[in-house]
Amino acid sequence: MHALPRGNGTDKTAFYTELNAGLAAVLEGERDLIANAANCAAVLFHALPDVNWAGFYFLRGPDLVLGPFQGKPACVRIALGRGVCGTAAAARRTVIVPGVHQFAGHIACDSASNSEIVVPLLTGDRLIGVLDVDSASFSRFDESDAEGLRAVAAAVLAGSDVAYPL
């Protein structure tokens, strides 16, 4: 098994650089999107400090459908434009929410979650799904996390075959 960094919050840029190197080693040689998303969710859940959920939703018709994740059971279907995940997917942009209980339309899958970051998975203009990470702490995520997780999402997509119907 590959050694993964454990962030301490002091130098997020260096942490995400090391995390992405470790993730690349985990994904090497595998092209299946679901397998790579599963390993990525595990890597994020165990490497990111102060995280209580990390995983993927994939676009299936008009909904985001739960994919591989780590954490408590989650909502299975989310409509585009609904909740933090649906908002990020519809807007095709990263959404950082410091306090999810103040987010209009927030979907509370785990009442312990207080902040969230969602990164859309895009190949060109095509929306594949989203990468979603939650924390029990308020204001856990910032722009450094957004940049780091966008690189994680890009690595998963680049290392995976996404041609089959999602």
Automatic annotation (TrEMBL):
InterPro entries noted in UniProt: GAF (IPR003018), GAF-like_dom_sf (IPR029016), Phosphatase_reg/MetRdx (IPR051330)
MF annotations from Gene Ontology: L-methionine-(R)-S-oxide reductase activity
Gene Ontology annotations for the cellular component aspect, listed alphabetically: cytosol
Domain of life of the organism encoding this protein: Bacteria
Domain annotation GAF: ranges: 18-165
Listed Gene3D superfamilies: 3.30.450.40
Pfam family, one: GAF
PANTHER family: FREE METHIONINE-R-SULFOXIDE REDUCTASE, GAF/PUTATIVE CYTOSKELETAL PROTEIN
Family of the protein in this entry: Belongs to the free Met sulfoxide reductase family.
Protein name listed in UniProt: Free methionine-(R)-sulfoxide reductase, contains GAF domain
Species this chain originates from: Frigoriglobus tundricola
